[in-house]
Amino acid sequence: MNSTDFSSLSLKPDLLKNLSSLGYESMTPIQALSLPIILSGEDVIGQGKTGSGKTAAFGLGLLQKLDTTSFKAQSLVLCPTRELADQVASEIRKLARAIHNIKVLTLCGGTPFGPQIGSLEHGTHIVVGTPGRIEEHLRKGTLKLDNINTLVLDEADRMLDMGFQDTIDQIIEKIPSHRQTLLFSATYPDEIASITDRVMQNPTVVEASSVDEESTIKQYFHLTNTDDERMIALRLLLVKHKPDSALVFCNTKNDTQDVADELAYYKFYAISIHGDLDQRERDQALIRFSNGSVSVLVATDVAARGLDIDDLDMVINFNIAHDPEVHTHRIGRTGRAGKHGIACTLYSDREMRKLDALEIDLAGCNDPLPNDNYLDKPLKKPTMTTLKIDGGKKQKLRPGDIVGGLTGKGGIPGDKIGKINVGSNWSYVAVSSELVKTALKKIQNDKLKGKAFRVRILS
C-alpha cells in the first residue's frame, strides 16, 4: 500500500468509503504531511497555497473525532471571507456525506443575523465562519464554544491582513484551552508566529512546497550617463516589466521625493517614504503600498527598514548602494519563497568603481534598456484601491464591521476586499479597483454599525 494513499490512514470506514467514491485516492503533499499528525491529535501549522488540498486535510481530521450524538458545536473553522467559508463548509459536507445527520453551519457577515440564531438553536456539529460574525454571536450569547475540541484558522495570513487579530484573540478566549489547533497559511509573517506562540501547543510545522526552493532573482545593470537618462530608464523598466509592486531605492531624501514626484507626473501609481514625512503620511504610504493600491514605492534604505512585503515583484536601485551588504539586502527583498524577482541597478560610467566595490561581474547581466517606444504603452493600474474611513477603534469600529458593511445586500464580494487597517480614529480598506465606486456608495448609503462615517477614495 502506498504511504500517500488515503487507505493508509486510520480513518473511519465510512470516511474512507466516501473518499473512494469521490475519486480521492492519493493525498496531495500537504495532506500526506499533515493528516497523520492531525489524526494523532497534535497541533499543526500547515503552509500551503489555495488549492493545495488543505481543506480536506483539516476536514477529515475534525470529522474523524466528531461525536454525532451531541448537537453542540465541536469544531470551529475561522476563514477570512464569506466566499472561502462557503467553500470550506461545502467541502466538509461533501467529505461527511457518508455519515448521517452531520450539521455544518456557516456564520458569516453580510447575511441576515436572525436565521443564523434559529439554526444555532437547532444545534450544530461544525461551525464555519468569519471572525467578525462569530465574535458578534459570542457577544450576543447566541453561540457557545464550551465544547469545541478542534479550532482551525484557515488562511490565517489573510485574516491578519484584514485586521482580525484582536477579534481572533477574543474568540479564542471563549474556547477550552484543552483543544487541537490547526493553522493554515500561504505565507508565514511575524504576526503568525506571535499567534502560534500564544494559542498552540508544540505545533508541528509542515510545508507543502519543496524544501529546496531557492530565490530566483534576475539581476540586470543598465548604463545611464545623465540624470534625464536615468529617469527615463526608470520609467522604461516599469513599463516593460509591469510589476504589481516595485520598490525603488534612492540614497537621499531629496532624490526620493523628486523621483516619486516625477513618476506621479507621468501618471505612474507611485508614492515615497523618507525621513521628512510625518508619521501619518508614512503610515498611509506604507498601507497603500502593502495593500496593492500603489504599485511603486520610492524609499531610502533607512525609511524602508521594517517594510514587510512578501510579494515584491521588482527592486530598482535608482542610486547604487554604498556597500555590498546594503545592495544584497535591497535585492533580497524580491524573489522570495521561490518566486521570480527582478532587480535592476542604474549606473553611469563614473560609477564603475562603486560597482567594483559591490564585486559585481557585469558579464551576462549588463542589459540594454527597452526602446523609448515603450513609453507610449499603457501603464498598469493597481488591482486595488484604498478607501479611507474617518472612524476607528475609538468609535468602536472593527474590521468585521467594515467587511459586513461592504458585503451586505448590493455590496461587493468578500474576496474583493484586501487588507484592512484600523487605527484610533481612522480605518483604511483596500477593495478591488473595478468595484471601488460600489464599495464607496455602500458605506455612504448604508452606514457602518448604524453610524454614518465620512469615507473617501485615496488617490
Automatic annotation (TrEMBL):
Keywords: ATP-binding, Cytoplasm, Helicase, Hydrolase, Nucleotide-binding. Residues 4-32 form the DEAD-box RNA helicase Q domain. Its EC number is 3.6.4.13. One of its GO terms (cellular component) is cytosol. It comes from the Bacteria. It comes from Bathymodiolus thermophilus thioautotrophic gill symbiont. Pfam families: DbpA (PF03880), DEAD (PF00270), Helicase_C (PF00271). Residues 216-383 form the Helicase C-terminal domain. Residues 35-206 form the Helicase ATP-binding domain. This is DEAD-box ATP-dependent RNA helicase RhpA. One of its GO terms (molecular function) is RNA helicase activity. GO terms for biological process: response to temperature stimulus; ribosome assembly. Belongs to the DEAD box helicase family.
